[in-house]
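Weekly modeling sync, notes
Attendees: S.R. (lead), two postdocs, one rotation student

Agenda item 3: backlog of single-chain predictions. S.R. asked that every request posted to the team notebook include the full sequence so nobody has to chase files. The rotation student volunteered to paste the first one in as an example of the format we agreed on. Action items at the bottom.

Example entry:
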Amino acid sequence: MLASASCLPIVVKDFLMEEQDAMKEYRSGERISVSCSRNLQSSQAEENLWNYAFDDKANADRARNLTCLNGRWVGEYPECFERCRRSSIQGNLVAEPESEYLLPGDVVKIQICWGNIPVEGDGYLTCMANGSWYGNATCPPQSDSDCFTPLEVKNAYISGKRWNRYPEGAVGQYVHFRCDEGYILKGPHMMLCYADGTFHSEMMPKCLVVQCQPLKPPEHGWIEQSENDNGKTIHDFRSYAMVQCEEGYRVIGSVRRQCQADGTWSGEDAVCQIIRPVCEISPLVLRYGRFHSMDRMTIDHGARVSIRKMVKCDYGYTVPPNISYVSCYNGTLDPPNFDCIKYDYSIRQCHLSTTVGQVIRYRDKCYLATHGTFRSYHAKRFCQNLGPNAYLAMIPDKETNEAIGYLMNMAPGEKIYWFGAMWNSHTFRWEWPNGKGLNYTNWMNGEGSKTVKILNFNNCAVVISDVRWASTFCWRFQTYKAICEMAAN
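Predicted structure, as returned to the notebook:
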């Protein structure tokens, strides 16, 4: 039996490429795969697929297998033909293909030649089997010089500053201009690179600096603007404007403003406001009282201040009842004098006997500081027996507390008095005899807290000589004087 003949490697034939070792002999029965080269197309391949290397998996399905049989390769060889390149057409197409390579029989139409030059003929081209284009469409030859013409536009960014011819770049393509911040483009925003290797445009673009509208000077003032090298006032982007006022006036608003990229000035409009003299008040000029602050005080022109927030009168004195505020106008106080005056504590309309205690009238109430002492319950009964709507004294505010202090200082002897505050264990708060809660208090440190009331069972209150309050037991045997109140009539 004769030995089987081996097969030699296949020589490239009609654009065929074979996957084989050129130095190897193949035994009978061995197989190899052959397909079209990268720049060729198989007649059986799908449309729009063009990259066919042997190691490409997508190409493996289009490859053909050959078998060595007794010294001959047996099998079906693929039919290959050459493809056409899109880049060999020097113009824009009506419909651009999806790939660089086109198949024989594909038809394209040139819309315009590179450099914006009209095409000669009907514009139609057909891809031939040898990889060339055929048809009635001709574009003039391109210039050998590329669009290297330097384009310099001050204060602008130029994209695509250096262009080459297609497919690398520029013939028939555009260069674009974008101005820097604070500049506005005047002219075309792009220029075309023509086939003669130059850029064409009706006018050269420019970037002009943004201008802000001149600021109107305020009344009683003027504007100082930035200047150029020639000493000329400018209102350009990033220039400054300073608002100045005449003597005796001050700037209200933005003093320094800058021209911004959008053509507006930063900040806000300014006015010149007359400077009015302020009013100064010395803490030493107040009689029968003192200011809360011992520093020299000033009140601005047009401002007013509550006297009660500014002044504390001595015991027995009060701010004038017809004055609530002090105002300043052009350096003059209104009213010019607001000294504390002696309060009228006369006991007119107070039907209380001065034999049982010291009496004063404050506002619409009469107050009695007893000479005798009582236990808390008896003090309450004593005050109620003075007349209708009579109680242990209620102290609703600071001024009443000070009036009570004045009354206590008038009376001789020890300065500890029962008054109307009492702890209510049901409502869990301090209350007055009329059942209302305390809105004003003047407790000593640690006195009057709810915790103390719970733990110590203190449920009555006394006022001592410095008109501070203290809590104490109601039902023990302490005896103190009492402060009673009743309506004046």
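Discussion: group reviewed the output briefly. DSSP finds five helices and 40 strands in the chain.
Action items: rotation student to repeat for the remaining queue; S.R. to check formatting next week.
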